[in-house]
Amino acid sequence: MSLARSLIDVRPLRTSPVFRRLLIGRTVSVLGGFMTMVTVMYQVWDMTGSTAWTGAVGLAQALPLVAFGLFAGSWVDRADRRRIYLTATVGQAVCSLLLAVQGFTGHVPVVAVLALVAVQSAFGALGAPAAGVFVPRLLPKDQVAAGLALNQVTGQSMMLLGPALAGVLLGRLGIGACYLLDALSFCVAFYGAFGLPALRPRGEPSRSGVHGVLDGLRFLAGHRVVRGALITDLAATVLSFPVSLFPLVNAERFGDDPSTLGLFLSALAVGGVAATALSGSLTRLARPGTVMLCASATWGAALVGFGLSRDPWTGLALLAVAGAADATAVVSRSTIVQTRTPDALLGRVTAAEQIVGQAGPSIGNARGGLLAGWTSGATSLVTGGLLCVLAVAAVATTTPELRGTAAPEPQPEPEPGSGPEPADAATGTVEGVTGA
Hints:
Blueprint: H1 3-6, H2 11-15, H3 17-48, H4 51-76, H5 81-105, H6 110-131, H7 134-138, H8 144-172, H9 175-194, H10 209-222, H11 224-240, H12 246-253, H13 258-277, H14 280-283, H15 288-308, H16 312-340, H17 346-374, H18 377-398
Helix pairs in contact: 3-4, 3-8, 3-9, 4-6, 4-10, 4-17, 5-6, 5-9, 6-17, 8-13, 8-16, 11-15, 11-16, 11-17, 11-18, 13-16, 15-16, 15-18, 17-18
């Protein structure tokens, strides 16, 4: 296998100028988002000196996504996704601008800062399902995985750069300037999406309100491949997400050295960037389900090794392996979701995927912390990793369609008004996926 084929597949950048511009805008916006995440934490801590208030920042970001995500997805599936995304981007930019104003003036209560964060997150809950249809609508089906990998590698690169850049700019320019830069980053994202064509749903539009949400949930319950992909991700994060355990494991195994603790998260991100940069051969494979299952099991096994390791460098290497496995699983799962879901349902399914991605790590952190309190950090890591491997094996055994080895699954008859039928289970063909 040649090195060129192993490197990330950049065909989408060559074949689709619209995707290229969209990716640039998204990358700049993600950079601004990570800067704001650090800036909000810094400001709230500076205002209160309370870990309870800094913890509330995470709730302000997560609750709107969980509360409104599925309803936002239902709306996205009955309207022009481009227009919704642009509206959400403007809303997020306005919130960042208001954060910048209060950052320069410095005369607002902490509750007002959290309220702005929550409103911005609500706009994000609206924009994410709309953006979820862009890649399969702009790229040929055989380039969808490559487009998702490009999104992943740029996002993880910004996760490395954004917090560090925020730390530098906070000291030199102050809180207000960091928020203002985030507002400007949304302007770049707006420009990147402005040239998109109208992207109305292909097929029967979603019904309004709760009915549309229930239609999306019925699709997830009936489509074994998509359901299995989301269950695999949820199991991996709920059972073995390790971040809350890092301080305790660092104290138990590595002498409570702050420099070691700081490298734990960086190792995960570095592994993710490296794996995505070398994802070319994997994204060209025709079986993303098999890749996802293997990557998710590797994630759990690497965390078991990290929990047993007593050498810092071995531990960091295992975390890098875990980060690489996680990034590979994310790209493969998104490929499954976006190629196996009919366009008219993609907003709702993408919203469900976003909720799983948000809720899973939060629950996993809580699970790991509680178990570590009863036992130890290493025990929590090892048992969580083993449970992850067992859960992935169970999904692989009970959902052979996810491995791409089974015959086509029976297609359920659609209920009246319930939207289009699921995609063909054997080929993943979705009408209009390859349309530009």
